[in-house]
Design a protein that fits this description.
256 residues; Rossmann fold; seven-stranded parallel β-sheet; three-stranded antiparallel β-sheet
């Protein structure tokens, strides 16, 4: 697990954007796993500004609210098209986002898993982290071997997401999300976290024990994870000096 700490969210995002840009230039038909919410917004803006070639890229989104049509203003379909896809030259047929209105959730989830496999697996998965350590919508106590499935959102997650809906009462209770086992099969995971409110979750995920109570902690067991943080999100880490030293002294061939 590589921990990269930068002064601001903007500079940390710039590192993450360079990682993705490097992948797309090396592998134009890369498969990306994408996240939503406020954390990756800066990332998508920077990727758009880079004017990369997305024609052969395939994407799979982490999650979607159950009960929201793709046309709903707070659906993750709408979020992705508004904030990324309509600004790049990606093919619509290569975009995969869970269907919040599916009539058969278990069947859809099994199909989603098969589609990821058929695409060759995910090369790089973008992740945010919740204040309780969730990744995707895998809430605390989620199985660390879980696959794409329906999940019930915790009151904390619904409270955190109420700002997007206008009130907590309007936030759906359920979602479809990639499982932790699915996320762990990505060849690389790229986790972004910004702000003091993420500091405890990050400290537990990076330096605490691997536990389902902080789902992101399972990333300690992944062979290729990069965590991009601003100083506020890194403020409760114990080994910040070491993380800075490692990043500043990378061999030339590891630098982007």
């Amino acid at each position: 697990m590589e921990i990269i700490i930068q002064p601001t969210a903007e500079t940390a995002t710039n590192v993450a954007a360079r990682i993705i840009a490097h992948l797309l230039r090396e592998k134009p038909d890369a498969v990306l796993g994408l996240a939503t919410g406020s954390t990756p917004l800066l990332l998508y803006r920077q990727l758009i500004a880079m004017k990369l070639d997305w024609r052969k890229v395939t994407t799979f989104n982490l999650d979607e609210y159950v009960g929201l049509a793709s046309t709903h203003p707070q659906s993750y379909h709408g979020f992705m098209w508004e904030n990324l896809f309509q600004h790049v030259n990606i093919s619509k047929r290569n975009v995969n986002i869970p269907d919040g209105l599916t009539k058969d959730v278990p069947k859809f989830c099994a199909k989603y898993e098969k589609q990821i496999c058929a695409a060759g697996g995910i090369d790089l998965q973008v992740l945010g982290i919740g204040t309780d350590g969730h990744i995707g919508f895998n809430e605390p106590t989620s199985s660390l071997a879980s696959r794409t499935r329906i999940k019930t959102l915790t009151p904390q997650t619904r409270k955190d997401n109420a700002r997007f809906f206008g009130s907590e009462a309007q936030v759906p209770h359920h979602c479809i999300t990639m499982g932790i086992g699915t996320i762990m099969e990505a060849r690389q995971n790229l986790l972004l976290a910004f702000g003091k409110n993420k500091a405890r979750a990050i400290a537990e995920a990076v330096e605490g024990p691997v536990t389902a109570m902080n789902p992101a902690s399972v990333l300690q067991q992944h062979p290729h994870v990069t965590v991009c943080l601003d100083e506020a999100a890194a403020s409760e880490l114990k080994l910040t000096q070491y993380y800075h030293w490692v990043y500043d002294n990378k061999p030339a061939w590891q630098q982007l």
